[in-house]
Amino acid sequence: MSTRLKVALGCGVPTLLGLILLGGCAALFSKAADDVSKDLDKNHDSAVVSPGGAAGADAGSKGGEADITHDVKVTACKVRAGEFGIKELDLRIEYVNSGDRRFTYLAEGEITVNGEKKSDIISTGQNLAPGQKYTDDKAGGLAFDVAKSAKSADKIECKIIKVSRNSY
Fold this sequence. Notes:
Layout: H1 3-42, E1 44-49, E2 55-57, E3 72-81, E4 87-96, E5 103-113, E6 116-128, E7 133-136, H2 144-149, E8 156-167
Antiparallel strand pairs: 1-2, 1-8, 3-4, 4-7, 5-6, 5-8
């Protein structure tokens, strides 16, 4: 046997087997990542509230699911005197898990004063069991500037724009 043939067989065959093994591992990894992605999609719902108040499903939402925007609502939105007479926004968001398993909710919205957007709302209700209710009493904590500049004649509104939930 010639030296070239020995080198070709000695180096070429293991290299070819290594490439086949590497390709097989890549295919298995891709399949596993796709399966995990499908499982995660099953555990996520999202809905956007339209200006008219009706909910529309987001891209991550499952068809046929209950409207999750009904699980989250603003129960208080007003300026009040807090500790030491400092004005603060009393914003409360109530969560009720209408699902069939534990969920964590994320509510996003906006605060408007006389129709003009002044601040954002971000609130969470974490690890709620089916039927469990939770009220975020401190949802307006980041909107201190809205309360500070508010006048008694101002019309302050708090609106939920998007609700997302993830299961465990």
